[in-house]
Amino acid sequence: MKETWISQRRTLQLSGLTVDHHISEPTELDFPGCNHHLLCLLLSDGNQQKMTRIGEQESEKSQIKGDFWICAAKTSGLWAWDSTDESLMFIIDPLFLSRTAAQVSGLDASHVELRSTISARDPHIDAIARLFQLELDTGGMGGLLYTESLMQVLVIHLLRQYCTLQPKIQHITKSFPLHRFQPVLDYIHNYLDRPLHLAELAAIVGMSQYHFCRLFKQSLGIAPYQYVLQQRMEKAKELLQQGKHNIAEISLLVGCTDQSRFARQFKKHFGVTPGALLSKKLP
Predict the structure, then answer these.
(1) For residues 53-73, b (16+ Cβ closer than 10 Å) or e, as one string?
(2) How many angstroms separate the CA atoms of 168 and 101, rounded?
(3) 153, 187, 221, 256: which has the fewest Cβ within 10 Å?
(4) 6-161 classified as CATH 3.30.1300.10
(5) pTM for this model (two decimals)
(6) CA of 124: how far to CAs of 14, 43, 121, 150, 157, in Å?
(7) Per-domain residue ranges of the chain
(8) Tens digit of pLDDT per residue, the chain (283 long)?
(9) CATH label, 171-283, candidates 3.40.50.300, 1.10.10.60, 3.40.109.10, 3.40.50.620
(10) Residues pairing with 31 in the sheet
(11) Burial class (CB in 10 A: 0-12, 13-18, 19+), 13
């Protein structure tokens, strides 16, 4: 069913999370609930909210830029507003939330319940939302691993702050030597030409995605997505200097299906465009 009250929309689809940036026209929505958790953050000024009702909570106050609400799965709601608003909606799979809680805290999945919330403000959620918005604005310039890492940060924060039973995140205190991650590094180098997922990298060393991100950065000094991007750009530089492939081919060989995005990343990394190597070699 088409949502006629949405005039513009851009969507980022991940496993366990959908990020939906949209412009909504004035309307009234009587929502019966759905199978996913919803978190919606207002990005624009001038909201004229007449009613927000989520479960048993109710408010007739207008929202201000940066306010958000959470509607837990299978919770009904009513929204009515007279303004044209820009929002970022996070559609969260409860199974993903429960699995993450089990992996990082050992909490029984049946105990993971997100609290519905109205007109809340949280600088951490606002910052995460802005980073997701930037990814939508730049066509996913940070890459799949980056958005999956952002998703982990968002979900862990929700578990810590917005669950009815807050799980105690179990931190691995012992350090992991670099050689423990060598199978992951080898895997990355072998598959630079295709999308790499956080889950598959974490599985190589038998860790949760959360602990993998923390320990990888602790051992190598940079996040997994930064390491993969670094290796892709270094490989691209090497291929360009060999002169056997054109820029479009090299873009695909290092896992970048969008040639213009590849060029922007290359220039950001080295300070020159890939085309500059036609007449100039990088040091």
Answers:
(1) bbeebeeeebbeebbbbbbbb
(2) 9
(3) 221
(4) no
(5) 0.87
(6) 20, 15, 9, 12, 8
(7) 6-161, 171-283
(8) 458 899 999 999 999 999 999 999 999 999 999 999 999 999 999 999 999 999 999 999 999 999 999 999 999 999 999 999 999 999 999 999 988 888 887 666 667 889 999 999 999 999 999 999 998 887 776 788 999 999 999 999 999 899 887 666 666 556 677 888 999 999 999 999 998 999 999 999 998 898 899 999 999 999 999 999 999 999 999 998 888 888 899 999 998 888 888 888 888 888 888 888 756 655 5
(9) 1.10.10.60
(10) 77
(11) exposed
Distance (Å, whole) CA 9 – CA 25: 12
C-beta neighbour count of 184 within 10 angstroms: 22
SS3 2: coil
Residue with structure tokens 């940036």? 21
The tokens for 47 are 């909201």
CA 143 from chain centre, in angstroms, equals 10
Q: What is the Cα–Cα distance from 237 to 233, expressed in whole angstroms? A: 6
Amino acid, res. 100: T
Whether 6-161 shares its CATH topology with 171-283 is answered no
Q: Which two tokens stand for residue 205?
A: 């060393």
